[in-house]
Amino acid sequence: MANCHLRLLFVVTICIVMPAVALAQQPVKLYTGNLGGGIAITGGNTDTKNFNLTASLVRAEMRNVIKGSLAYLRGDQNDVLNLDKTSFNFRDEYTISGRTFVFGQLDYLRDQFKQIIFLWVPTAGVGYKLVNTDATQLTIDSAVGGLLEKNPGLETSKSGSFVPGQRFQQKISSTAAFTQSLSTIFKTKDFADSLTNFSLGVTTALAGKLELKLEFIDSYKNKPTNALLKKNDTAFVTAFVVKF
Predict the structure, then answer these.
(1) Tens of pLDDT along 50-71?
(2) What structural domains does the chain harbor?
(3) CB burial class (10 A; 0-12, 13-18, 19+) of residue 114?
(4) pTM (2 decimals)?
């Protein structure tokens, strides 16, 4: 099963990166993106290994913006796996007038320690850019759609979904930026069964197209599949990011 997920991760990464590589020579740069990764290893009384992989691609043309992002986190302590999480997001956004836009979106999550074999959430919705300047962007949106979730030992759960979200970005300087995002996936058949994702990060340029990104990630599932599971999982991620 682990090999299957790694193959899926590899295929999705290639799908995100290859279009940008193929079109890099075009005079008009429709595609931008980045690849990032980080690793931390400690030894002594406690042996730990943690690494992360991220990739993103954005295609922006006139009113239409298409975005894809991927994140993979894995870690172990004393050779015991304690973190194994993959997430993917695809979003097609179209500005209809001024700061108002509509979008279609697909979210995927696999989290071994939340006992989520897979979570697929296809949605469509509308959003508004409360602030939209070169230095500051603040956006809110809301979407509805479907949801498929598979947990160990249980049949695949199906439900409608309601997904409100908010994103904020502030340029601190010409080389640094602060980012924050918050979204919650509600199951319409049981609104108490929700999954909230929060992130807070700072990115700063190091040299050329190389950046350093520090990010805090918080994932809160209100009704875990197993009563013994904790509702809240947090991670502090450090990664070197190459822009293209």
Answers:
(1) 999 999 999 999 899 999 999 9
(2) 2-243 (2.40.160.40)
(3) buried
(4) 0.85
